[in-house]
Amino acid sequence: EAATRADASTGSARASRRLAAGLSVTGAWIAPFVRTEADLGARVVLVATAGLDLAEHDESVAGGWARSLRWPLGLAVAGRVWRSGPWSARFGAGVLAVVERASTHGLGEDGSGTRVLPGVSLAGALGVEPHSRRWGTFLELSGASLLGGLAPEFRVDDQAVLEPRPLLWGTSMGIAFRL
Q1: Which alpha helices (H) appear in 1-82, and where do they start and end?
Q2: Please, what sign has the CA dihedral across residues 107, 57, 73, 147?
Q3: Could you give the CA distance from residue 139 to residue 153 in angstroms, rounded to a whole number?
């Protein structure tokens, strides 16, 4: 979550919206993302994020291979915990939904399927806004737990494939623009 919160520092009660773009790197994906943010109060923001994983997820199985594409989606609430001049920090918690499309190739019978991996996340962000306060940059550290047991498995020859990592750590960086 981008830590751009100019309205709170100036005392403005006007609701603010921001649009952000960046890159998220975790143990499970490398995903450029877009994010929209809306103020819920003087120190609280609602954040919706959608990304597209660029990493290749291939696994050899039964003489062929399985491949998946992932789209990480998130909805979080974050609160500003510190501000000093153009610098600010915030902490948030949210829910994840990783949409994963898998396909098999090189087997006697190729197939495909889609699943949604639910999860929860915690994130802390440090941001800076130059004097214009129309844009800002951010660096975020996050941890997430994917609840793979709540999603169907991808199976080939009665063997689970492309199993999700249960715990992820990552970082995101980007730029946010005030609308």
Answers
A1: 6-10
A2: positive
A3: 34
Q: Structure tokens of 35?
A: 């994010």
Angstrom distance (rounded) from CA 165 to CA 121:
14
Q: What is the pLDDT of residues 39-87, one digit of tens each?
A: 999 899 999 999 999 998 999 888 888 999 999 999 999 999 999 989 9
Of 54, 66, 5, nearest to 25 (Cα)?
Answer: 54
The candidate with the shortest Cα–Cα distance to 17, out of 32, 7, 31, 29, is 7
Would you state the pLDDT for residue 14? 58
Chain mean position to CA 23: 9
User: Tens of pLDDT along 101-134?
Assistant: 999 888 877 889 999 999 999 999 999 988 777 8
Q: Alpha helix locations (H) across the chain?
A: 6-10
Kindly report the pTM of this predicted structure.
Answer: 0.86
d(CA 14, CA 28): 38
Q: Measure the CA–CA gap between 135 and 93, rounded to whole angstroms.
A: 23
Helix, strand, coil % in the chain, rounded to nearest 5: 5, 65, 30
